[in-house]
TrEMBL record:
Pfam families: UVR. This is UvrB/UvrC motif-containing protein. It comes from the Bacteria. Gene3D superfamilies: UVR domain (4.10.860.10). InterPro entries: UVR_dom, UVR_dom_sf. GO terms for biological process: DNA repair; SOS response.
């Protein structure tokens, strides 16, 4: 099967041919093999959604995912400051 050296050569050829998607796949496979995975693990690995950390985003808590609102969600409108706090609910009335 594929060894790290074969994958490295394949990645370099793909990069020279400007096939960056293939080069990325080879790079990810090399990273998995260097991490101690076997060839069988490599064949079963799912690279979809694999995302590298952005440069400059190093530090505590930067690898946490950011929440994205669901499609079609709109932020609620802000309350009107002229009417805020003027509700009679919960207030005691004079008798």
């Amino acid at each position: 099967m594929a060894t790290i050296e074969e994958l490295r050569r394949k990645m370099e050829k793909a990069a020279l041919a400007l096939d960056f998607e293939e080069a990325k796949r080879c790079r990810d496979q090399i990273a998995i093999l260097r991490g101690g995975a076997t060839i069988d693990d490599l064949e079963q690995a799912d690279f979809n959604g694999l995302e590298r950390q952005k440069p400059g985003a190093m530090g505590l808590g930067t690898s946490q995912q950011k929440l994205k609102p669901p499609p079609g969600w709109k932020r609620p409108s802000k309350p009107d400051p002229m009417t805020t706090g003027r509700s009679l609910r919960g207030r005691r009335t004079k008798r």
